[in-house]
Amino acid sequence: MDMHTLLLSFLFVSVLHAHTTISTGTENFDASTVDTYIVHVRPPPNFSVDMSSIKLEKWYRSFLPPRMASSNTHQAFIYTYKTTIFGFAVDLTEAGKEYVMKNDGVLKVYKDNLLPLLTTHTPDFLGLRLSGGSWKKAGMGEGVIIGVLDTGIDFTHTSFDDDGMQEPPAKWRGSCKSSLMKCNKKLIGGSSFIRGHKSAPPTDDSGHGTHTASTAAGGFVDSASVFGNGNGTAAGMAPRAHLAIYKVCSEKNCRVSDILAGMEAAIADGVDIMSMSLGGPARPFYNDIIATASFSAMRKGIFVSLAAGNSGPSSSTLSNEAPWVLTVGASTIDRQMEALVKLGDGHLFVGESAYQPHNLDPLQLVYPQVSGVNYCFLLKDVAGKIVACEHTTSADIIGGVVKNAGASGLILLGQEDSGHTTFADPNVLPVSYVDFPDAAVIRQYINSSNNPTASIIFNGTSLGKTQAPVVAFFSSRGPSTASPGILKPDIIGPGVNVIAAWPFTGGQDANDAKHKTFNCLSGTSMSTPHLSGIAALVKGTHPDWSVAAIKSAIMTTAYVVDNQKKPILDERFNTAGHFAIGAGHVSPSEAIDPGLIYDTNEAQYISYLCGLGYTDVQVEIIANQKDACKGSKITEAELNYPSVAVRASAGKLVVNRTVTNVGEANSSYTVEIDMPREVKASVSPTKLEFTKMKEKKTFSLSLSWDISKTNHAEGSFKWVSEKHVVVTEKPGLQNKECNRVRGCFFHRAGSGVHGYKDSKVQLQDKLQLSRILGTVNENIDINL
Ligand SMILES: *[C@@H]1O[C@H](CO)[C@@H](O)[C@H](O)[C@H]1NC(C)=O
Ligand SMILES: *[C@@H]1O[C@H](CO)[C@@H](O)[C@H](O)[C@H]1NC(C)=O
Ligand SMILES: *[C@@H]1O[C@H](CO)[C@@H](O)[C@H](O)[C@H]1NC(C)=O
Ligand SMILES: *[C@@H]1O[C@H](CO)[C@@H](O)[C@H](O)[C@H]1NC(C)=O
Ligand SMILES: *[C@@H]1O[C@H](CO)[C@@H](O)[C@H](O)[C@H]1NC(C)=O
Ligand SMILES: *[C@@H]1O[C@H](CO)[C@@H](O)[C@H](O)[C@H]1NC(C)=O
Prior knowledge:
By secondary structure, the chain is an alpha/beta fold. It folds into four domains: 17-112, Alpha-Beta Plaits, CATH 3.30.70.80; 139-331 and 471-591, CATH 3.40.50.200; 335-463, 3-Layer(bba) Sandwich (Glucose Oxidase, domain 1), CATH 3.50.30; 640-751, Immunoglobulin-like. The strands form nine sheets. A seven-stranded parallel sheet has the order 7-10-6-13-14-15-25, with helices on both faces. The protein has a seven-stranded mixed sheet with strand order 17-16-24-18-21-22-23, sandwiched between helices. It has a five-stranded mixed sheet with strand order 29-36-35-31-33, with no helix packed on it. A hairpin with a 2-residue loop joins strand 11 (249-250) and strand 12 (253-255). The longest helix has 18 residues, at 524-541. The relative contact order is 0.12. The active site is at 150 (charge relay system), 208 (charge relay system), 525 (charge relay system). It comes from Oryza punctata (Red rice).
């Protein structure tokens, strides 16, 4: 009877779709029991990088059952891999899989899997402005190549024009693989990896990939808007970076074997950054092939930016938890596309919608129900009325049904989980999305009034009126499941109602006409490319920095106060914790000048993996190195990460951290500790003096607390240099470096410190509701 049961069944439908390849078992020779597997093997003895692909394929073939091994290899393999992992994707029967698994040289066999895909104003909100702004200081990503692994691209979009772009750097080895796509100096590569068909053009059938690519590195486009709303100059975060497109997803899902093939190509082509707005549930890293492939990318200095997931706000709902990738959560910006709802009793609410046609004068307001539960399908007698529907399923599905039933307007009622988060994605009729507190009043009014009425008044776009950033309800939360001692997510960035490029499917000959259609979408899919672009700005300014250095720079310069100078809030307007915001909200202009960085190398990651208790083979799967754990092991807390998390039951923590000077050669930093009273904290030494660039200094951090009294605590400390006058979050302590509307940004080479409860949080039904809400909002068709 209740909502959750209904929704669960909805979820089951979609989940089962994703797993229809599960074989039922016994009859091995039935073609329908053939599944795609990714077979991860040890490299051939005497492997060298110049080994021919024929030799490598011969090696791979030796793992196949005899009948397949002797047949034409090109038919047998869907993909062969050698950059991310050694191995191949292949269709096998259950018996074939058993045969392959028995071979000693096989490290792991993964069943191929489907993973879900999880702006005009955002550059401004992030302090990136053309005139005198930070783009001047940070550059615009010149010479940096961002590989976007997504649903492809609409290359005719004006965002991908190459005005002002330089030639791609000499190291670039990619190209436009299909004659049906035109490359230029902005769009320097495009290829498609769908079920091994590499000759197809990377056409974007969904819009998701066009949106994310333009968010990362779209060029400047004037008068960009969604139906006139959010009008402004659109630009990606790194407007002069190059884009290389790898289509690895079709519509909403991405096959792991395709993602892996795309990552291989991106590494071989020479990208600097990989942007991947996708992810599945967390799993141990040796079972997480994206984590494994990202390890190979990291080793080659390629920065991987991945979505945290849309399964919030419940705890431990993250995707992509590996410490060598950046895990990106989502928050709001200060823009609203106001769709006001005025009730018959005079109450006025500010809802949102990017589609703002004519206003609706007071009309009868109905709340359709079946057995006491709101039901917005099979509607009767709603012609000329405004229908109020619970926003429990895709807004465009509800919109379509309500419009077809002849209604004049729609009010989408926010759910408890979604708190104050509202969406604005365009719909097919006049609509207002209202948040949960407003929805509660509207429900109450309908229930208690004999003749409920409402009007919808479209009030255009407002900027700076709302408190922001606020964590989006759908943004997945920590603690990490695979590695609870690493604080995740790492960072939050804009991911609600992000306006970015969108394919034009209006019937025009797409190859001739340039166009500038934009759409408004929400999700960690949208925040991820923001961070990919910002990583490109950092990389462009510091080409020699490691992946860990770029991560550290982004994390330690993040801010934790909003535009009201108050701590950043979550969707319920409670102070957002570290498990929601990680290090905080990204601050691009600060990220290029962090002063100090926490660097990490491959060897330390391997020691960390061994410290997780992984076996030699499990570490070999990730790091492609045998007997790795004969070397040193470290605990999670000992990884030189820019944050720390520790079990509350431990009672204390003593760890060393090493910082590298990337600021002024001669500089001196003193520590400032900000811990809750119940945690005793000290840092030693309290002062770090540097005389050289890249000089390293180690300090020790000690924390202790009473385990009988404290099971959750959060704090931070920062290193403060003389050059950068530090401003704390307390109002009144501002200086000239702190005059931005967004609050104060301190150059803290700081660390979030976090204690987490010992007990595991159970996932709840509500979580699954949010997951549906979060995901459907990434797929909107605006061709009304
Ligand atoms: C590997 O190299 C060694 C020494 O160079 C050689 O004896 C051996 O036959 C090689 N093995 C293979 C499989 O090529
Ligand atoms: C957007 O703004 C530009 C310049 O400010 C203006 O010329 C244009 O007409 C506006 N477009 C819409 C749809 O409001
Ligand atoms: C309407 O009010 C009745 C009586 O107070 C209550 O039982 C019911 O749950 C309410 N329905 C809604 C949709 O709020
Ligand atoms: C509607 O827009 C106007 C002009 O931007 C603004 O002053 C007013 O506050 C808005 N109304 C509401 C209810 O937000
Ligand atoms: C921290 O570093 C100091 C000095 O380098 C060393 O003596 C100590 O053993 C280290 N402590 C830990 C916990 O690694
Ligand atoms: C740093 O300070 C030392 C001593 O104070 C001085 O000798 C040196 O030249 C300074 N280096 C730089 C790069 O300013």
